[in-house]
Amino acid sequence: MIKWEEKGGIAMVKYAFPEGFFWGTATASHQVEGDNNNNDWWEFETQGRVKDKQISGKACEHWNRYEEDFDLIEKLHNNAYRFSIEWSRIEREKGKFDESAIEHYRDMLLSLRRRNIEPFVTLHHFTNPLWISREGGWLNEDTILYYLRYVEKVVSSLKDLVTYWTTINEPNAYAFTSYLLGMFPPQGKSLKKMVKVINSMAKAHGKAYKIIHDINPNSQVSIAYNVMIMDPVNPNSVIDRKIANFVDGIYNRLFIETLITGRFSGPFIKEDIPYAKDTLDYLGINYYTRIYLGLKTLFLALQNKLYDYPEGVERSDFNWEIYPEGFYRVVKRFWEMVKKPIIITENGISDAKDTKRSKYLISHLIQLHRAIEEGVDIRGYLHWSLMDNFEWADGFQQKFGLFEVNFQTQERKWRESARIYSEIAKNNGISEELEKKYLS
Fold first, then answer.
1. Which of 90, 225, 226, 291 is deepest in the core (most CB within 10 A)?
2. pLDDT digits (tens, 9 = 90+) for 139-156
3. What is the pTM of this model?
4. Alpha-helical regions (H) of 224-356
C-alpha cells in the first residue's frame, strides 16, 4: 500500500492506479451547452416529446460558463475531460461551416490545455443537425459522406490541440433507442432500420478513422461504446439463454466485431467493410448496469417496460440495477476481444440525493482495479457526469452530476461524492478509510 499525507494524519492507498492514469469527467454538448436550437433533439423537445414536456433550453449554460466549470475540474484534481462538439453549431446549414463556433471550441481546448487537462473530444453524441434529420438521418447513405466532411473540417481545425478523438458516442445505444425502441428521435420501431443505422455508423467510423489519422498520425481514435451485462432471467432455461445471447450479439458485439474483423454480420445485412477493420487505437467503454433477458422480458418489452429486476436488487433513481461486478466482467470481456487499451469514457449513477454515488463510485473503481491487477490495460476513468444536466427523454429529472446544478440560477454546488472523487483523483487511488466508510 502507498502512503499519502493529509490533514490529521496518514492514510493508506489500498487500491493504487497506474502512474499517468486519466481521472476525469464527461459531458455531451446538447446536455450542457444550452441553446442548441438547430438539431433534431431541440425539435423533439419543442414537440412535447420529453418527460413533462421539458426542453433543454439554457441547460447548464456550459457554452458560456466553461471557464467556471473547468475551474471545478481542476478542483477535482482531474487531468482529463471528455466533451462533445455540436455538429449543428458547426454546420447549421448544409455545407456551410461556422468558423466562430469552431473558434469557440478552440478556446475551450486552449483553456483545458492551460490547466494541463487532457481533452477527449467526441464528434457525434446523439444529436444531428436538423437538415440531416430532414434528409433521412442515418438511414440516408449520404449522411456518411456529410459526417465525414464535418469530421475533416473539425479535426483539421483542432488537430494541434486534440490527441484523443471519439468518432461516435454509443452507436449501439443510439440505434436501439432511436430506431427500435422509439424513445429518441426519430422514434422508429424497426429492427431492420436499427441494424441499417448500426451498419452506417460502422462505415462512418471506419472512414473517419483514416481521415483523422491522415490529418494527424499521432491521434488516438476510438468510439465510446455502451456495454450492458445481459444475463438470462433463468440461467437454466435454454430459451432465456438464447434470447439473452441474441440481444447481446446485436447490442454488445455486432459493432465491435465489425471494427475487429472488417465483417458486418447482423440480421438483414451481411457485408464486408474492410476499411473498418482494426480501427480502434483504444476502446472507450461506457458501463452503467445489467439487464435480464428471457421470455418474460420479451412480453414486458411489448408493453414498453425495459426493466424487470429480481426483488431486493439495489437500483439507481433511473431504476437501473447497481451492479459493480459487471464493470469487471465488461472490461475483462472486451479486453479479450480487442486487445487494445481501454479508457472508461462513462460510468456513473442517477442519484439526486447523493446517498449512493460515493459507494457506487468506490465499488466500481475497486472492480476496475481488480481487472487492472489481472493484466487488463485500462488507462483512464471518466465519470458521468461533471454536473447535473439535461438527460435526454427524461429531461432534468435524472441527476448524474458530481456537482448539483440549480437550473434557475446556474449555481454549481459540491456534492459529497465530488469531494470523494477529488480525493481519489488527487491520490491516484482509494484509501482503506474510504473503502471501510462506504463499503463496510
1. 225
2. 999 999 999 999 999 999
3. 0.96
4. 238-248, 254-261, 295-302, 324-338
